[in-house]
Amino acid sequence: MKLKLLPMLLMSLYGASAWAFQPFVIKDIRVEGIQRTEAGTVFSYLPVKVGEKLDDEKAAVAIKALYGTGFFKDVRLEVEGEVLIVMVQERPAISQIDFVGLKEFDKKQLIDGLKQVGLAEGRIFDKSLLDKAEQELKRQYLSRGKYAVAITTTVTPLERNRTAISFNISEGEVAKIQQINIVGNQAFPEKDLLELFALSTPGWMSWWSKSDQYSKQKLAADIETMRSYYLNRGYLEFNLDSTQVSISPDKQSIYITINITEGQKYTVSDVKLAGEMLVPEEELRKLIKIQPGDVFSREKLTETTKLIGDRLGNDGYAFANVNAVPELNKEKQEAKFTFFIDPGRRVYVRRINVTGNTKTRDEVVRREMRQMEGAWYAADKVTRSRERINRLGYFSDVNLETPAVAGTTDQVDMNVSVTEKPTGSIMAGAGFSSSEGFILSGSISQANVFGSGNYLSTQFNSGKINTVYSLSYTNPYYTDDGISRGFDIYQRKVNSSSLSVSRYDSDSIGGGVRFGVPLNEMDTVNFGLSVERTKLTTYDTTPTRYLDYVRDFGSSNTTLRGDAGWARDTRDSIIYPTKGSLQRVFAEMGLPGGTVKYYKLSYQHQWLRPLFQDFTLMLNGEAGYANGYGGKPLPFFKSFFAGGNTSVRGFKSSSLGPKDIDGNALGGNRRLVGNAEILFPFPGMKKDQSLRMSLFLDAGSVFGDGDIAGQYSKISFADMRYSTGLAVSWQSPMGPMKFSIAAPLNSKETDRLERFQFILGSTF
């Protein structure tokens, strides 16, 4: 029987067949041309079945459906009597994907990326997907500054209707920024403006920071930084005219030209408040950071609108709107500003929803909330809630939203979405310090035991001076009020032979309980009680005062130790602080009931203030006093020491203060240390907060009886040691690292100097 060919796909899609056929009832369907695809797969996508009536319209729909699967590059329908024959030609399958000349990226990561877009071994080959993959790969090279990259894609047909895809890549070299020009600047030198940029021409640290590699996003950010620089210094009409980025013919050098118009410098002539204030105007005026006579500053203007909005938000006006409307006098270069205030409706929080915490219990998150359900919305409490949840350390991301409740005008929900991160760790590492030598350390810890928010850890630290083994457990919410309770068990061995102190060894084992009581968001009171057993070992070179103590009170001592302290921390960061302060008061006492009776008092005050740009001034002062009581002297192993990387740099660790006949430090019962540092980013690293430098001036010593020269019996600035120098701190992936080069300013012949000091790795 003569076969009848149905209209082809393009004709079907446009409904224009060359000729029509008589509709008929399908008695059977046969599939021909398939090699890998199962016939059942074709039937599942075919929109017509046996027993249905086939006409031109249904035939067109059937062809379109089979093409839509992407499995076939040709589809035809033929009719033989009352049998529908589906003729298909399969697309080839991808047999292999290979990369030639690939160096910049990891091959496995690229294979995984191609799989995400549907290009993978075993899948149907699609030329459009291959073109997209080639363009995306080229875009990735361009984002890394390799503008000379050339990518050639080869598709090789193989037997059994398969193909091999090969990406042949000539990566080329990274293009470097050779010149950045700013045209139109008059008020500020080009050099000062370029200092604001993250992008730069090649420098001695650009191999690390990649700052000499062009990025469209970085350039946009740099231009916005420059715009803010001008707007914060009165140039209200500053305008970016154009930006040109050109590349050399060999695609190795990039040239950037930025054209600007500075405009005139404006001062503020008047500031007014208008609208529905709801808060006494005097209180709001205290929040205004820009005053008549000041040079215009967008930063201060923005800060003012935020402060007023937050103040209204603290009273429940979550959607308060504050707009600063300017009125310019171009002749006098003056600007008046009116802050229009629209508080909106007062709202309260209906419900707090926590999501994303698959392991951490809801209560662990909710107990950090300072905004309560059913209470008026308070912007400061919402902000503080986010900060407290972030500081838990259990989540990599904390997102907090307050959407309005549908159908209401005075309610919002508080949606807290968190992304959990691993909180347990098994660590083993090594470090080196100029005082401790080679150090082996390790720990097993879980900061969120069973999702309860409790902390459990065991640690060991093996140095030639200190050997420590400890087990700690802390429940940060022993009570609903936030009182914490912790337990510690430890063993500590001290070998003083490697220090500049008089020779003795000690072996202590102990355990205790401690509590922390928060007074407010910034202040915490801590106290604890522990029992410690200490065994002392003396030598022929041990000084007489140490031998006398062991003779009078024995080589084994039991200490019933009581601790109490207060801390107030307002620093903006623990790792990279730029402002705020830290105050600590700590008291340690050997209580009656033990054989050791003493007390130690310590105070520390650290203060930070931004100076200009990225420079920060840090002042630190520490003072300590200790003594014995009940007719007993201060145990020599509880004395204060000074000198080294954490107190007075340039002098060997624990070497300052009273000394024995051999020139070794005896320690003292009074300690005074002061540090002044100017902190700034590492040159060439700019915004990298993991690496920081400082210029420092250190001063300090310990004071007490026993010095053979009769010094240090009283606190005297003449007996203190001073040093100055340069320091580098790096929060490396292996742990914190600190280096310092110091020049002692008033060293004596008996002092032990160590001008270069360092600590590598994290030590306990």
From TrEMBL:
One of its GO terms (biological process) is protein insertion into membrane. Residues 24-91, 92-172, 175-263, 266-344, 347-421 form the POTRA domain. Transmembrane segments: none annotated. One of its GO terms (cellular component) is cell outer membrane. Residues 1-20 form the signal peptide. Keywords: Cell outer membrane, Membrane, Repeat, Signal, Transmembrane, Transmembrane beta strand. It is found in: Cell outer membrane; Membrane. HAMAP family: OM_assembly_BamA. Belongs to the BamA family. Part of the Bam complex. Part of the outer membrane protein assembly complex, which is involved in assembly and insertion of beta-barrel proteins into the outer membrane. This is Outer membrane protein assembly factor BamA. The gene is bamA.
